Amino acid sequence: MEIFGKANRIRLLSFNTPQMRAFHFSWFAFHICFFGWFGIAPLMAVVRDDLGLTKTQIGNTIIASVAITVIVRLAIGVLCDRIGPRKAYTWLLCLGSLPVMAIGLADSFETFLLARLAIGAIGASFVITQYHTSVMFAPNVVGTANATSAGWGNLGGGTTQIVMPLIFAGVLMLGVSETLGWRLAMVVPGIVLFLTGIAYYRFTQDAPNGNFDELRARGELPAASGEHGMGQSFKAAAKDIRVWALFVVYAACFGVELTINNIAAIYFFDNFDLTLATAGLIAGLFGLMNLFARTLGGIFSDLFAKNGGLKGRVRWLFIAMLCEGIALMFFSQMHVLALAIGIMLVFSLFVQMAEGATFGVVPFINKKALGAVAGIVGAGGNAGAVAAGFLFRSESLSYQQGLFYLGIAVVLASLCCLAVRFTEATEAEEAKAYTDAVGDDTGAGALSLR
């Protein structure tokens, strides 16, 4: 799939172009999705007491919240190839808002588990965000665009940890009990999700030159059936070993972030004798690093590509992954609150830079099956979170032990970067595309205010 009219610069304060409207709406939509996806996480101490959940049951709900996303992400990528990111995002946001509001009806472990399972589908929003920015931005800034849109979206993981306890407290001020309070609090993100879906349909378009149906009508885009259908797109991506190498890599970075988002608040609450609000605030710091950390990963990916080409992008990915694993092992051994917070921030920096570096590589694997590649790699993040979830559901394994073993797994996963290679012809082609995209602009991956 060859898309023309891509932007070669990110003008942050501009909303006049379809590229920048897609950029801003995609990160904001993904950000809001976190409020629905993980809105219940900082309230789990209250839910645990209300529903009488055990540690194993809480672990099962954590796994459920990310398990279904694996399947939905695989499907949503090829769906983007077919109907475009605009319609895909609209449907996901509007339908996803329903189980977010309905979780308040849960009155047992089983119903709560089913609600978190259904809500997990919202996590597929990440794939659409990365797809939309990939088709809107040129090679010299696509790593930065992907990383920033995803990073500012992932920032929702941090703001959710801070804002949801405040919403919960506000509901309690109305005079309701804690049992009813957490249920009413979840209605708020559900409503915002639905409204965001309507706005996405109204104000964005699929590509710089129009929506996919318009491009196909003008003959500028292949038909969405037959040789270029969803099955062929997925098959082309699935038979590429590099896609599965990145699947494992993303499992070890975004999967780890999702796991920390789920357990951080209750981890600090239980291990450092903090209040729910304080634990949520500290846990929120981990996600708030997305404000700049994932963007840095994309910027470095574009800068490494300036001198090292696609090999440079892969080299940077390996470095970020290795540092992430080492930092996580150190974090697991911290027993003093101040040190735990400090090392957590260092670990957060590298895990999010690794995520940005991963999707600095993804757009160059197979342009004709971009959605399928993004879907499979994106699904890896949730597959990693499911696997990590089993470390934290066992009654016999402490959170500290689970985090240490997870750090070892990340170090091993970093070796998968070695399997991501490109032919000399592809390297030369992308080097030329990079140079053409930069033109007279010497700033690789540059962001500007206007």
From TrEMBL:
Membrane spanning stretches: 21-46, 58-76, 88-106, 112-131, 152-174, 180-201, 243-268, 274-293, 314-331, 337-362, 369-391, 403-422
GO cellular component terms attached to this protein's record: plasma membrane
SUPFAM superfamilies the record matches: MFS general substrate transporter (SSF103473)
PROSITE patterns: MFS
Membrane topology: Multi-pass membrane protein
Main localization of the protein described in the UniProt heading: membrane
Domain of life: Bacteria
Domain called Major facilitator superfamily (MFS) profile: residue spans: 22-426
Location within or outside the cell: Cell membrane; Membrane
PANTHER family in UniProt: HIGH-AFFINITY NITRATE TRANSPORTER 2.3
Similarity comment: Belongs to the major facilitator superfamily. Nitrate/nitrite porter (TC 2.A.1.8) family.
Protein name: Nitrate/nitrite transporter
Organism (species): Billgrantia gudaonensis
